[in-house]
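Dear colleague,

Following up on Tuesday's group meeting, I ran the structure prediction for the two-component complex that the binding team flagged. I've pasted the input sequences exactly as they went in, so you can double-check that nothing got truncated or mislabelled along the way. The structure tokens for the whole assembly follow below. Feel free to forward this to whoever is handling the docking comparison.

Inputs:
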Amino acid sequence: MKQLSFAQAKQFLLEAAKQKAASIEVFASQNSRTSVQAFQGEVSEFKMSKRMGIGVRALVKGAWGYSYTENLSEPALMRCLDNALENAHLVAPEQFAVLAAHPEPPHIGDLYGEGLSGVTVDRKVAAALELERAAREADPRVVSVAYMSYSDGESEVAIANTEGLDRSYKTNSAFQYVAPLVQENGQSKMGFHVQFSREFESLDPTQTAIEAVRKSIRRLAAKMPKTGKYPVVIENHCMAMLLATYSNIFSAKMVQENKSPLAGKLGTSIGSSLVQLHDDATRPAGMESRPFDDEGYPSQHIQLIENGVLKTFLHNTETAAKDGLKSTGHATRFGYRGTIGIYPSNFYLEAGKQTKAALLEEIGTGLLLTEVHGTHAGVNAITGEFSLQADGFWVEDGNVGHALENFTVAGNFLEMLHNIEAIADDLEFSPMVGGTGAPSVRVKELAIGGT
Amino acid sequence: MLESNLVSEALQIARAGGAEFTELFVEDRIRQRLSMLNGSIKEASSGNDYGAGIRALYGTKVIYAFTNDVTREGLQSIAEAVARAGGFTGEIGITKSLDFRIAAPRKLYTVTQHPLETKQLEKVALMRRASASAQIGKVKTVDVSYLDWVQHVLIANSDGLWVEDQRFHSRLGVTAITEDGTRRADGWRFPGGSIGLEAFTNDIPEQAGLEAAKIANAMLYADFAPAGKMPVVVGHGGGGFLFHEACGHILETTAIEKNASVFAGKIGQKIAHESVTAIDDGTIAGALGTTNIDDEGMPTEHTVLIENGILKSYMVDKVGAMKTGYARTGSGRRQDYTFAPASRMRNTFIAAGLETPESLIKQVKFGLYARSIGGGSVTPGTGDYNFSVTEGYIIRNGEICEPVRGASLVGNGATDLLNIAGVANDLIRSPGFCGSISGTISVEVGQPHVLISEITVGGRA
């Protein structure tokens, strides 16, 4: 069956909705990607893709119904529209559900790096081979570069509705990732490093590989810590991982559904006075930057926590209307296949003034936490509690000592925000966790499970 | 699904660069999802995933391209891209067409209540039943989700294989949240299978609601779990995540072939306590991880991984077989057409042993009873893993005592398999998801109650 183009499909649905006197929003996206993996000096996997689809959100008597299709033939699009309308009939109406032609979005530069579109396949392959080679040859203790890839791509998001809103934007991105396996004295360790850019030339495979090997080797000769409570410095990337994991508790949807431990805490102190938490969808070169959110609402920079006090939640138009507010521009739907939820964009904890070394010096004896694992399972977003497998180092007299392995770190995210006693100046955004950023922080005490 | 001459053209064009093997995977999947909060439907969505992927093998080098333009032009365009990526620079021309052996897959199960022929309101009724039965004790919030899909796949390759199959998936999820002042706790259950709505016959929705609510109530006043090394009795069913994370992933050839597994080269050797027999079975009728054929078109198999502590087999896909020399086990799986297949688990479980759960608990002076388990993860190269306990109790002098709040268990697969000190006789399986290099797929885990002599518990007390 003949497939319509992206733009034709959007137009077809809007016209069909008009004929049915239906209120709908069309969310269309298309993306193309290339990825290359190498193993022992040769390309092991080369992948190319082009994917597009259309999602329809229909508003019927205050209720939303959703449907999407990747089959862009006219009958499939018609079926998609009908399914969305039928689905709306199943849903309990909400007083605040509306479609609107939202205000004009801001102009955001740097979302589409011109230096990426013209890169030949040969250069991408060469980058992947170099990433693998440089990691393999960086140190004799590297036994295998088992997991690595270079990937890039571009995508276009278009949103239109029957109220007259019609806007789109294009982004591109490139990632390189490498996780070398290192061995010494019968111990195996695997660290990783990842780099994100919108410009090919600013990726440096050799440096990324060397950094990944350094992060793997520093984990060797690890010992288990003794079980107990210790003062802890949480390294920037690890702190970003924890922040990203708990970002959901700031969603007004979670709060309104009584699933967030922050319900009822607006205007109160939820952290140490050092804590300044932001979300900025307009951040230059931000991984999650965008001119508008997934219902077309303009992006903005908001501060969620100011001097420890909770100032606002993340909103879409519907949760905001329920609270008598304006949207903060955080409607998120993970592509045409998803439904509208609320997630942060470039979500970050503001940097402090001290160095990380000063933070370590202040704890004297304790732990430096560099990574946590299994956050999809070991974290409870309803209570704020966590118990996680961790990687880190023993700290003695303010100096980073031997690596630690096979241990857990446990606590409560909200207690931890209160227990932040110092914040370093090393804010970094972490491509592993969707552009969330954090500096290193010093926390009074966390429970460590070891021997 | 597609005409054979169109498929033949695509496979032959893709081979123009000298590939020894090309394969086409096409899927057309219809999904329905519903979510309910405290008895009222909050979201209803349906969808149609539709796309095709072509894989070409040059030795063990994989080239993969996918599109959702499943027309002659769309398929030829990815086929040509695959050939060009393999180094082909000539003109794409007409070649000899392939003779397909059209094979109907062996049918392991017959669906009796087809999701596409069931009214949405019947699905809503199931959700209401689950939701109502969770309203006990201190439960304040009940979230219920419902998900089904029907996937039609076509797998054809340059060796002449042509196989089509229809796959089903039905899942109900209940999360109960209890509250008392500032205290909160949750419990959940997610029954389902690779079948139709008959997955929810009898009182399965009620049982799921009740069980979720019981856990949320039991955990509401629980104190912190202890921290440190101790013996742990891991509950049956979902406790099988332990084996899945600790050992399963590093027995897939994707880890073995890169020398990124502590179990590489250990076939025939003792890697676990002699009471441990572990199986990965893709043929259990209706189980969530079951398919008639794998995503490379091979009938799935019953694969004994470990027998009485001895490593017997890995889980092997086509490329894994080429790289390691072991025979394929029908383990090539992928989330959808956007991934090339890789060796993955299906329904993985530890076989029943001879002891009873009570006799295992009796052996523990002080330790943890991990009755319900969330998920976990593993670092493949090292075998270091974690998984989370969502319902735990202290064991004191051989008796199950007070409840304790969630904690992670961490360890190393190679070591902890040897630390299994007893296996009970009450095997059950439990459905779940698994995310890895070829995407997120449905699996089951399973085990009887198992005693581990020593493992690190990540509590706070």
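DSSP finds nine helices and 23 strands in chain B.

Cheers,
M.
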